[in-house]
Amino acid sequence: MFAVVDVGGFRSPYVAGVFRDRKVTKVLKTPAIQSVGYESQAPEQQPHQESSSFQTRLYEQVQAFSQVSPSTLLARDIMSTPVLTLPLSASLAQAWDLVKNKRFRHIPIQAQTGTLVGILSDRDLSRGTVGSDFTGTKGLADLAKITIESYVSHPVLVAAPDATLLAIARVLLEERIGAIPIVSQEKGLLGMITRTDILRVIVSHPNFEQWG
What we know:
The protein has 212 residues and is an alpha+beta fold. It has helices spanning 45-68, 75-78, 92-101, 122-129, 136-143, 165-175, 195-203, and strands at residues 2-5, 11-13, 86-87, 106-110, 116-121, 156-159, 179-183, 189-194. It has a single domain, classed as CBS-domain. It is built from 7 helices and 8 strands. Strands 2-1-6 form a 3-stranded antiparallel β-sheet, with no helix packed on it. Strands 3-4-5 form a 3-stranded mixed β-sheet. Strands 7-8 form a two-stranded antiparallel ribbon. Helix 1 (45-68) runs antiparallel to helix 6 and helix 1 (45-68) crosses helix 7 (195-203).
């Protein structure tokens, strides 16, 4: 139902707790940019705690949804499709354009053969654009010269189209990820499921207002 695809396109079985050790270069800690009038954030652990808490609540909502829903929803029923992707040779400027103007937070990355080899999140992208995204035209010109390859997260966790909504929500919670690509047995990219897609399903349930 779930698998891990490495940068070479090789697929291996998903093992809970192992996937988080991804081959991504760690970024040195830098002071956060804060809005005027806001309290400074508590220790760096807080963002992770908030994210985990949100995903826990989301999973609990999916559990409640699964108990009252008359049928089991599968990945193919809720995934967003078609999916906009980028090749490994794409520039940081191209990726930044998708994140900023299309409001994508997760971009599947494909090899020249069309095989899914990684995923680029807005957080991954910020590592490549920090210090440049505020420099206007000159900064964008510089970003156009740098490829996304070294900023792409891999391996990438993927799901089959027959994975259940509850199973997907559980994996998103346990692995602390915000999206998961849906692929076929032939490794073809079929769609994408994000936390937003799951929330959309939950709030569209006819009994949703009675859950509060």
